[in-house]
Amino acid sequence: MKVRITLTEEALGSAPSNEDLLATYIASKAPTSELSAEEIDNIKAQNAEDRITVFYKSADGTPFQYNYQVKGMFKDSCQMLAKAGKAGYSGGKACAALKAYKKAIDGLIFVYPREIHYDTHGLKMGYCERSLRAQTPMGERISIAKSETVPEGSTIEFEVECLDPKLEDMVRTGYQGVICVEAGGPTPGLGCAGRGIITALEKLEETGAYETYQPDIVLYDVLGDVVCGGFSMPMRKGYADQVFIITSGENMAIHAGANIAMAVQNFRNRGYAALGGIILNRRNVKREEEKVQELADDFETQIIGKLTRSDLVTDAEEQGKTLMECYPDSEMAAEYRTLAENILAICRKDGLC
Fold first, then answer.
1. Half-sphere exposure of 77 (CA within 13 A, CB side)
2. Number of CB atoms found within 10 A of residue 232's CB
3. What is the 3-state secondary structure (H, E, C) of 270-302?
4. d(CA 29, CA 34)
5. Which one of 22, 121, 122, 258 has the lowest number of neighbouring Cβ atoms within 10 Å?
């Protein structure tokens, strides 16, 4: 949804020119510490006079608001509507029914771009000074407040994207903005796990996940067993373009890998996914690399990556993080980056990305 707001009266800057005050009361509310530091640096660079409130500005002096400030407005509006809904106002009943409206807004509503610039249409910015009065036990106290202003008639434009809550329930944003979906499965001992995968993929289509997130690359991490049609679902019906088999040199893993490769060969004539290569995930068994190479030769493919068995992987899992997040400078992280580059090279060669 595209939004255009025209100011019917001048708007006041809300960022204190005092860095300490800004860091304590305003920038500390930013979604990330990086953005908080960015806000402080932005105000510091303006060298504005002390004890006034100003706007954040781009390098050319154009005032702007951050997108999370707009989301804050949505949260305030929802809070007030919820109170009105509880008091009987019909227009606020939906907000009143939300148990965690702030979390819902953070997860379902996205505002773009990050910096929302004001268009003053050639008008000049100014200042507004007004007196503030307060009654205290020591008598009336009066102070003068001064704020930078954007003139009446200025406009701002931004986009608001609202996600289907059903889609939001399925999706989580992980490290470096990677969109993650857990397919889940039936109650242990009941139902079919393969059917769970089929249902998950169908639900992603129904909720418009691919259109909403528009991912550059989609990875399906599926159990290595193609006896069940559900587990082979991603390589059929156009869900995937390339299949990469991850295997160690253990006999059962080699056997499962051969079954998958055979299934891919059978699907090839139907226009399904092709075999992109084999990834060696070392378990440090005898003749490991030799056996995996034999598997690759049998199916006329190649080993596109070799991963060392490392305790860093399990250490990262214990922390609930990826290895790339915990140990980005490790040798293991370098192996993952090399593997990613090889996969992308294969996809680019085939015109898939």
1. 9
2. 23
3. CCCCEEEEEEEECCCCCCHHHHHHHHHHHCCCC
4. 12
5. 122
- Name residue, tokens 């190479």: 293
281 contacts 248 by C-beta, under 8 angstroms? yes
How far apart (Å, rounded) are the C-alpha atoms in residues 196 and 140? 68
pLDDT at 36 over 80: no
Half-sphere exposure of 40 (CA within 13 A, CB side): 18
> What distance in Å separates the CA atoms of residue 52 and residue 46, rounded to the nearest whole number?
12
Structure tokens at 10: 């001048």
By DSSP bridging, strand 53-54 and strand 15-16 are antiparallel
Cα separation, 82 vs 87, in Å, equals 9
Confidence of residue 163 (pLDDT cuts 50, 70, 90): confident
pTM of the model: 0.53
Q: Residue 53: beta bridge partners?
A: 16, 147
3-state secondary structure of 173: strand
Q: What is the pLDDT of residue 182?
A: 80
Of the ranges 15-19, 143-147, 241-245, 289-293, which is most confident? 289-293
CA–CA separation, 180 vs 321, rounded Å? 13
Separation of alpha carbons 60 and 238, rounded Å = 48
Q: Which amino acid is at 127?
A: Y
Question: To the nearest whole percent, how much of the chain has pLDDT over 70?
Answer: 88
Local confidence band at 32 (pLDDT 50, 70, 90 cut-offs):
low
pLDDT of 195: 67
Is the Cβ–Cβ distance between 324 and 333 less than 8 Å?
yes
Burial group, residue 284, by CB count within 10 angstroms (0-12, 13-18, 19+): exposed
E strand or H helix at 84:
helix 67-86
Rounded CA gap, 103 and 297, in Å?
A: 52
